Amino acid sequence: MRFICIVAFVWLFIACGAKTKKEIVTHGFSSVLIDVVLDDSLSIRALDIFNDSLIGFGFDKGYGFINMDTQKTILREFKINDTTGSKKNWITEQRAVGFTDEAFFSLGVGSPARLRKIDRINNKEKIVYIETHKKVFYDAIAFWNSNEGIAMGDPTEDCLSILITRDRGESWKKLSCDDLPKTVAGEAAFAASNGNIAIVDNKTWIVSGGIQSRVFYSPDKGTTWEVFDTPLIDGKETTGAYSIDFYDDYNGIVFGGDYTKPTQNKANKAITKNGGKTWQLVSDASGPGYKSCIRYVPNSGGKEMIAVGFTGISISNDFGKHWKEISKEGFYIVRFLNDSIAIAGGKGRIAKLTFK
Fold first, then answer.
1. Contact 107, 96 (CB under 8 A)
2. I need a surface site. Which of 99, 103, 349, 356 has the fewest CB within 10 A?
3. Separation CA 206–CA 217 (nearest Å)
4. Which tens digit of pLDDT belongs to each residue from 292-326?
5. pLDDT classification of 89: cutoffs 50, 70, 90
6. How many Å apart are CA 308 and CA 321, to the nearest integer?
7. The pTM is what?
8. Residue 328 class from Cβ within 10 Å (0-12 exposed, 13-18 middle, 19+ buried)?
9. DSSP 3-state assignment of 177?
10. Residue 116 burial by Cβ neighbours in a 10 Å radius (0-12, 13-18, 19+)
């Protein structure tokens, strides 16, 4: 990258109010109202929400922000001089983003992969990690707290690429393959929705796909790891789990399929009730086919979940056993604001989704 075009902007943050624990309820959603808040030519596969009002997102040429209160949009677009020989400019693709209380982080996909930290107080951007390797391909980022975070990517050796920070994102260390489970040839991940990582307290789950689709688990914020098999379709570079979510320590779901065969719905979704140690297929050969992102509906007791993909939006109200398509509008990623409103990103737009 030869230079960066940066547009100056001012953050507008709303103070976090105290949150009270809500009762577990059955919402029974059967429809969704879609309100587009950004209509552009961008391809958006990663977004996060700060204080229910600020959306930070990654797109194919950089990252940006939308203030939901003022409706102001800011884009930071990266430019490089050499795109020869590549249909996709993986250097500028930002498919992993996330907020902490102090900063916003944006991680590039391909080599050289750059991880940027944007301080919310002084608005300064700096590169806190860079990696150059012909196999570099980063897929997702998430945080345990403001001090500690994790990013993951495809193998450059014989294990997943795992980055850890313990100093508020100021520095990131790549874990040695000596400390991680080995991957098999052709096992990797998909940068489809920043949905490869799930975190509950200190526990972390990472999903892989391709030739083999598995779940990598750490009980202690990335210090130790083990790996569990899933029954999802695999065997091809386009098959397997694309997204994972956990409602609590025990109940989780993986969702995926084969994006080249989006109607195929056999062995593309599975749940666990024991923290990821074993997985059981649900709605096998029925319900939606390929989806790039799965999320539990908050305060639903793990009973309700939303799946999005370029084929549309589907909902389950019974732990994934049955599904209903509630919209054919395509999105790549979804994140909930509360138990009835979410923000979704896709090809050319970001939208507010109100479920009814």
1. yes
2. 356
3. 6
4. 999 999 999 999 999 999 999 999 999 999 999 99
5. low
6. 17
7. 0.91
8. exposed
9. helix
10. buried
